[in-house]
Amino acid sequence: MSGKGASVLTISTVGPLRGWVATFGALVGSGFRRYTTYRQATIAGTFTNVVFGYLRCYVLLAVAASAPGGRPAGYDPQQLATYVWLGQGLLSVVLLWGWADLAERIRTGDVAADLLRPVAPLTAYLAADLGRAGHAMLTRFVVPVVVGVLCFPLRIPTRWQTVPLFLASVLLAVIVSFGCRYLVNTTAYWLHDARGPIMLWVLGAGVLGGLYFPLRMLPEWLAVTLWVATPMPSLLQTPLDVAAERDGLALQAGLVGVQACWAVGLLLLARLVQRRAERRLVVQGG
């Protein structure tokens, strides 16, 4: 391609790995820059998260006050406050809902252009989502946590391993969430309208992901089943339990390991579904 100012984002044939890393990094950066333009939406969303943080925190603290020993499901009041405020901050980082970009492009047929690009759609969307999560971590996450620290007695980590484990858990939660959202969006290849599956995902992710209440409050057999058989607790429950130091170090590391397994498995499944869909793609609308 030639011409003034013309450029094409490609993977280098001289150094494939280095070129892939550079391309992936550029896509992450573009995803980050995209969300820096939505300043008013960021402020409004952060304010909403803070308001609901107060409501959720007082509800769970009331539950703790009425529970025997003041520790419902093994959480003390500080751990519950930490769970709520970090959860409000992570809500926009992990992103449980509000993403239907791929499904819309499939419905309109624009996905055909994505398939002609040198970067696979799964890679491109993953990189952009990591850039979005990075922006949310610096904006939507910080403010609710600061408000929580100033207004409620949050738990300060007592183990140095908690911080790196929490950061790793958040990264894995973003990847797990992306894998789930990508798979839900790809149903549009067969259904041509993914609004139904997306709505089911929205309803299930909040309840089974640990947003509204800690899943440890459920019967033990049900909580364990959700953790092992579904990726839902890996969305919010695991990183929040790690931050609140709900469990010992060994169990925390094990839960993060479960997250890693779900992240890898969902990305592999998304790749398989994408390849199968490309072989039988019917472009809608022309």
UniProtKB/TrEMBL annotation:
Signal sequence residues: none
Keyword Transmembrane helix set for record: yes
Cross-referenced InterPro entries: ABC-2_transporter-like
Keyword Transmembrane helix recorded: yes
Keywords, in A-Z order: Membrane, Transmembrane, Transmembrane helix
Superkingdom per UniProt: Bacteria
Transmembrane spans: 6-29, 41-63, 83-100, 138-156, 162-184, 196-215, 249-270
Protein name as catalogued: ABC transporter permease
Organism: Actinoplanes ianthinogenes
Lineage, uppermost ranks: Bacteria, Bacillati, Actinomycetota, Actinomycetes, Micromonosporales
